[in-house]
Amino acid sequence: MGKGRLEAFSDGVIAILITIMVLEMKVPHGYDLKALRPLIAVFMSYVLSFIYLGIYWNNHHHLLQAVRHVNGSILWANLHLLFWLSLIPFVSGWMGENHFAAIPVALYGTVLLFAALAYIILTRTLIGHHGRDSTLAIALGRDFKGKISLVFYVLAIPLAFVNSWFACLLYIIVAVMWLIPDRRIEKTLIP
């Protein structure tokens, strides 16, 4: 089957998740800048989560540009990814509302870890469907950034109980690492 519906559905879900996150930020009751101070942690959490959802949206788009068609296994693998992404507004809000306390920060990292694993499962399912010599398989190669991201998440989760800000720093490092454009698929598609 074609990939168009999967791509459109995923785009819609990610757009809704971003909308939910911004709607969770409550308008302050004051009229001066001091009224915004209690929202700083919530806003910081929103920015980090917005960036993560943007990274997933961008990489998902590139991923699907390298495939021709999808099957039922791919649809389920994609839903698995969307499930974990759908938890980001909740853990992001909880983390921000509680000023980056240990348990919310650890749970945020757990959701990021499982979203990353789900993304890997999706790529493996796509490669299995299209073949090890497919454009996608060649473009992804050994996926160093994907593997190092998992390591950072696994380190950050217990680190949240020692120092939640250091755990958040690891989440930020992973986000920055993925913000640097990954041109593997583009280079493979456009010689």
Automatic annotation (TrEMBL):
Provide the taxonomic classification: Bacteria, Bacillati, Cyanobacteriota, Cyanophyceae, Nostocales
Q: What is this protein called?
A: DUF1211 domain-containing protein
Q: What's its membrane topology?
A: Multi-pass membrane protein
- Main localization category: membrane
Localization: Membrane
Q: Which domain of life is it from?
A: Bacteria
Reactions catalysed: K(+)(in) = K(+)(out)
Q: A Pfam family in this protein?
A: TMEM175
Q: Does the keyword Ion transport apply?
A: yes
Q: Which GO terms describe its molecular function?
A: potassium channel activity; proton channel activity
